[in-house]
Write a structure and sequence with these properties.
The chain is mainly alpha-helical and 111 residues long. The protein is 75% helix and 0% strand.
Length: 111
């Protein structure tokens, strides 16, 4: 379990550090359209590395700040990537037989 917690903390730290400056509106819209169309047509985009996915999540959050008119689109794209990471976490827990431990600890109120 310590290994899982360490990996999770490292992943979150990777996403929290090094925020890029706000991205130009035109670039935000182009990226959101491109990534959403890729996700709609081909799930292979989820084969991206976890760092790249984190950067895309962060960028979509930044885009919502600089282009609030399109915030729902940025939230949609970001949410798809967040769900992809969630599935990876669950798959990791399954591969390392951690799901039962997670459930037991959650039932015990360890959150």
């Amino acid at each position: 379990m310590k290994k899982f917690v360490l990996i999770t903390v490292l992943l979150l730290a990777t996403f929290a550090v090094g925020q890029e400056p706000a991205t130009a509106v035109n670039q935000c819209r182009a990226d959101a359209n491109k990534w959403l169309s890729q996700l709609s047509v081909d799930r292979s985009t989820m084969q991206l590395g976890v760092v790249e996915i984190g950067q895309r999540i962060r960028m979509m959050g930044n885009c919502g700040d600089v282009d609030p008119i399109k915030i729902s689109e940025y939230n949609t794209v970001g949410s798809v990537y967040v769900l992809g990471l969630l599935f990876r976490h669950v798959n990791f827990m399954s591969r390392h037989q951690l799901i039962d431990q997670f459930k037991a600890e959650d039932d015990a109120g360890l959150r």
